[in-house]
């Protein structure tokens, strides 16, 4: 058995202190790495804002002077207001089976899943606002990005899609 001596106790205490210091250094490095990730995310968010694809629900309703970003996801209330205030194209990118259950008034259907989707969209007037929607907002969000790349000036994506529109009791056609 080892008899504790002053030098053994000092060595043990120094070793424990060194271990603590080592773990503290590791944690500092890890935290610094997390901070870099947050900075990268902030830079990516800034880049996304520069591309003007955002969620924005401000609209000019005549009561106040505000604007809606040209390529944006918007809530059904704002989508409806914009459709009423700016003449444009209402684009339904759902399948025929989905459209047969109902659609927004005056909607044109171009199925996002069809191989000729890009060709059909290219025939639309790029200078008119486009109000695009699908069942829940995913396909129409992708369609909005494709339309932006194709040179469209304004595209508004309906957040929550046809389901959100219908849930609010807004007018649909069959």
TrEMBL record:
Domain Rhodanese: 84-174
InterPro entries registered for this protein in UniProt: GlpE_sulfurtransferase, Rhodanese-like_dom, Rhodanese-like_dom_sf
Coiled coil: none
Any matching Pfam family: Rhodanese
Listed CDD domains: RHOD (cd00158)
PANTHER family given in the database record: FAD-DEPENDENT OXIDOREDUCTASE, RHODANESE-RELATED SULFURTRANSFERASES
Protein name: Pyridine nucleotide-disulphide oxidoreductase
Protein species of origin: Microscilla marina ATCC 23134
């Amino acid at each position: 058995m080892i008899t504790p001596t002053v030098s053994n106790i000092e060595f043990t205490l120094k070793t424990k202190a060194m271990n603590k210091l080592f773990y503290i250094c590791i944690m500092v490095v890890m935290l610094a790495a997390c901070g870099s990730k947050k900075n990268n995310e902030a830079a990516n968010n800034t880049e996304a804002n520069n591309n003007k694809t955002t969620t924005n629900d401000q609209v000019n309703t005549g009561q106040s002077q505000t604007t809606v970003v040209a390529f944006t996801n918007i809530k059904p209330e704002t989508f409806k207001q914009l459709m009423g205030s700016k003449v444009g194209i209402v684009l339904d990118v759902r399948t025929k089976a989905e459209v047969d259950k109902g659609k927004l008034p005056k909607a044109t259907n171009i199925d996002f899943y069809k191989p000729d989707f890009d060709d059909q969209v290219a025939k639309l007037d790029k200078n008119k606002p486009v109000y695009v929607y699908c069942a829940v907002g995913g396909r129409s969000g992708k369609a909005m990005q494709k339309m932006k790349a194709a040179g469209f000036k304004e595209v508004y994506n309906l957040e929550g899609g046809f389901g959100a529109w219908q849930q609010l009791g807004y007018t649909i056609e069959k």
